[in-house]
Amino acid sequence: MTKTAIAPATAGTGEPVKLPTDAIEILVAVLEHRGWDKRDGQFKMVEAIADAFKTDDFSAIDVAINAPVGTGKTLGYIIASIARGGRVVVATSTKSLQEQIIAEELPKLREDLMAIYGYHLTYGVLKGQSNYACLDKIRAALG
Fold first, then answer.
1. At CB < 8 A and 24+ separation, what contacts does 135-140 make?
2. 46: Cβ–Cβ under 8 A, 6 or more apart, which residues?
């Protein structure tokens, strides 16, 4: 399993930039910025993830999403995660999905968030010797 870390953003001054905490609001803004249609499945998924983040015990969050190709799963779960604030670790089951997220999804979302909110999204790739996620590595990555 490979991991991607998404950290809080800062403006060019180094000062933190605040995003709305409503994941749906961010999703709507990004879709409108891109000129993309809204997808019901994507909105339901983002709401489910955002609801799961409302718990006080982040170690207890479990959300399973099963949706067809083209639903917008990656954009949806990343936006829901960003809206909650703090650092996020996204674990993928394949390196090709990780590469797609790093090479395509996150750079485009960074452009969107900068254009819409002045928010500079930062992210990186965490690769362990055996490329797996465990609680110790996740806790260390999240600080």
1. 137/3, 138/3, 138/89
2. 23, 24, 27, 76, 77, 79, 80
Determine the residue type at 6.
I
pTM metric for this prediction: 0.76
pLDDT of 142 above 70: yes
Cα 107 vs. chain centroid, distance in angstroms? 12
Taking only the tens place, the pLDDT of each residue in 41-57 is 999 999 988 888 887 66
| Cβ neighbours for 117, distance < 8 A, ≥ 6 positions apart | 17, 19, 20, 29
The H or E element that residue 18 is part of is none
Q: How large is the angle between the packed helices 106-117 and 73-84, nearest 10 degrees?
A: 50
